[in-house]
Write a structure and sequence with these properties.
Chain lengths: 393, 393
């Protein structure tokens, strides 16, 4: 399995911290927002004597509340369609292992969440990708491009909507194009929708389950990590109306016995949190988004499209090589004894050469800290030896 | 992936319960003993505001305490040798995926924990097994038998010690034979030692790490599930001194981001539990073991060797087919409106025909309940249509 560019930087960040340098982490999707109070209270008031296995498919009452939660988004699923997993990661892994045979291919628009490739490798499957372009705001590449990739080995199409890393939100017409392709070739549509609460443009969030005629093809990937700031509890879900797929997924679930019990208790309580909680998170991200994107585009040579959802943006920097630049930030640079940890975008592309002048920035810090991070970036670009000068598009 | 015989029975058990029948679960390794009070207290006093990702390799303070815990068993490992996983299941899965290529073979004495096969399938690897015999108390088959199985594709040897499902405890000379084989062919030795606290004969527990000259070959699998009655928290560990293996394992760990945070908090607190806790568990299992095994061997036609560790036994029953018998117990039989759920031993063998007249029984219930279960078994065998009569060995 290949090493991701971001992971190679972790030791450099640790070294910088050991030297007493403050490092702003814009590299990971770990929100700084509080976990819902109800979740924390639920954990603190556990009165069990034994922390026993939960059912392999997840705790029934949690699954029932999840079904109701999806109904609010007009995702018409039953309790039995929902299988609880150890985070979205396990959901993707089990989806791939259940639906794909070694050598099978999945088509993915990129930049894409880097671990999809790791999970595909686990399943012995191969990711074929078409790069979206920053100049087009990372809109879905033309569907004809995808169609050209289809071979007899193509078994699925994977999207992340709202998108990590770009923050792109697929439009109705793009989703319809994906649906038509999925239908025409009878593919699985793996749809990672863990950021559904975070859509900022007033445009509707379109779930893969809203698309008509492919109900048996959709495998929805979900997680409570991002929406409730509960990354550590490892609770996600795989949702599908396809019985055969569920039967296969359950075999993997049974082999690993059980998803985390206490995490499910926290997640179930979170579903009963007031609307205010998610509204507060939403408002916070809306403000940060504006602050960050405006700030980025004010820096000479930097360009960021406006992300429409999630809490990331992929920005273009005037640098020779984003891997080198991100390493340099941690190893060589400091501004008032502080620096920033950015994710080189090369890790989100499989197409060679792509992402070389792009980074992913997560706005999971408070505005004040984002402001400092922007200042550091600006100062860094002034002195970075690999700076490129060119027309600002 | 094949369906396990035990899983096929779960719907029958549920149906029996729906009919108002009491079902004694002797089929699973879910102890009824309480979780340590310190673990429950640690969870109840969590004062974090955010349930954030833990490091991919696990929380440092937990790993430090684990290292000290292993030292008590003369397992000489450093903190960096320990990688925390989501239960022993994930540890086995990551071990296989990191050490084995598709088509590679692992040698396993059987009967063996059924999910090893599932995890091998995930890694694309193949399990080759040699059956141990109930007449020999499930001692390790002759090492020459194993050696005959070795091909250029053989990459590892997997043991579970103390053993699930048989309760067998490998002797020093058996462990030395395994060591010699591992050394001679430079194999990995995957050693599942989650039951190390439960050795009942005064004979020493011999860890794979106690074997000299194969320090780089050993991958130890551990879990807190059984020793602290914490199956639901999903915390285990993979321990190896082999840097290259750890590097590979860490890639899988990073892809799934993080093991469960709250589980690690509970497990860390458990390591500080007084010796009394484990002594009480031990004494309880010793008593149950005697009670169950004596009771089994008193039933006409039933034979159980004396398990030396863990909390299972594999017993031979005078029946035509243990899959049929176990299904019949749940579907057709009742004694005073109660019945028992046993695990057909066929699921623990891959060699065809083996386990047909054997069942695994877990002594995870109180003596009073075990007594009722024994009575039910005795009555059931009197009327089971597929009863076989033969000499009692």
């Amino acid at each position: 399995m290949p090493d991701s560019p971001i992971r190679k930087l972790v030791p450099l960040a640790n070294k910088a911290k050991e030297m007493g340098r403050k490092v702003y982490h814009l590299n990971i999707g770990q929100p700084d927002l509080p976990t819902p109070q109800r979740a924390l209270d639920a954990i603190r008031s556990i009165d069990r004597k034994i922390l026993e296995y939960s059912p392999s498919e997840g705790v029934l009452s949690f699954r029932q509340k999840l079904a109701k939660y999806y109904h609010k988004f007009k995702i018409d699923v039953d309790v039995e369609d929902i299988i609880v997993t150890a985070g979205g990661s396990e959901a993707v892994t089990f989806a791939f292992m259940s639906c794909l045979d070694p050598g099978d291919e999945i088509i993915v628009p990129e930049p894409a969440y880097a671990n999809y490739e790791a999970f595909a490798i686990v399943a012995g499957a191969v990711i074929k990708s078409i790069p979206a372009k920053i100049e087009e705001g990372f809109a879905l590449p033309s569907i004809e491009e995808f169609e050209k990739l289809i071979t007899p080995k193509t078994k699925g199409f994977m999207i992340c909507n709202p998108n990590n890393p770009t923050g792109y939100l697929y439009t109705q017409s793009e989703m319809n194009e994906i649906r038509d392709l999925v239908k025409k070739y009878d593919l699985y549509l793996f749809s990672d929708e863990v950021y559904r609460e975070f859509c900022y443009t007033g445009a509707p969030y379109i779930s893969a389950f809203h698309l008509e005629g492919i109900e048996q093809n959709v495998i929805l990937i979900d997680s409570v990590s991002k929406r409730y700031s509960e990354c550590g509890i490892r609770v996600g879900a795989l949702i599908t109306k396809n019985k055969e797929v569920r039967r296969n997924v359950m075999k993997f679930c049974q082999a690993r016995l059980s998803p985390p019990l206490i995490g499910q208790i926290a997640a179930e309580a979170s579903l009963e949190e007031t609307e205010t909680y998610l509204m507060d998170s939403y408002n916070e991200y809306v403000e940060r988004r504006k602050f960050l994107i405006d700030g980025l585009n004010r820096i000479d040579g930097v360009y960021s499209p406006i992300p429409m959802g999630a809490f990331y943006t992929v920005a273009r920097l005037p640098v020779d090589d984003s891997d080198k630049f991100c390493a340099w930030l941690l190893e060589e640079f400091q501004y008032e004894n502080e620096t920033i940890f950015l994710a080189p975008a090369t890790g989100f592309y499989t197409t060679p050469g792509y992402g070389k002048d792009e980074v992913r920035i997560a706005y999971v810090l408070k505005k004040k800290e984002l402001g400092k991070a922007l200042k550091i970036l600006e100062e860094a670009l002034k002195v970075y030896p690999g700076r490129k000068y060119r027309n600002h598009e």
